[in-house]
Amino acid sequence: MSAVEVIAGANNVTGSLGAVAYGLAAIGPGVGIGLIFGHGVEAMARQPEAAGMIRTNMFIGFALTEALALLGIVMPFVFK
């Protein structure tokens, strides 16, 4: 018997562990996206002439970080 089953059985926890797994998986990309846009705005404020290049790199970073969230939503269904 796994530790999760012991804890769930002892506390009468019901529900989907996949939802909990996605909730935990969404924390990392959420923090990452906040950092990307926060530092991007700061960089554009410091060097307005480089705003186009900074914005492009910012959106590439956003897309890669968001891919982690999409993987996080798929994994509970894969390991079900």
If you had to describe this structure to a student in words, what would you say it looks like?
With 80 residues, the protein is mainly alpha-helical. The chain has helices at 3-11, 17-25, 27-46, 51-78.
**Compute the gyration radius: what is it?**
19 Å
Number of strands: 0
- Helix-strand string: HHHH
- Overall geometry: elongated
Sheet with the most strands?
none
Query: Low-confidence segments, ≥5 residues, pLDDT <50?
Result: none
Q: Helix count, per DSSP?
A: 4
Sheet-strand content, in percent, reads under 5%
How would you state the average pLDDT, rounded? 84
Structural class, by secondary structure, is mainly alpha
In terms of quaternary structure, the protein is single chain
List the helices and strands and how they pair.
Elements: H1 3-11, H2 17-25, H3 27-46, H4 51-78
Helix pairs in contact: 2-4, 3-4
Relevant terms:
mainly alpha, 80 residues, single chain
Summary of the model, kept short:
This protein has 80 residues and is mainly α. It has helices at residues 3-11, 17-25, 27-46, 51-78.
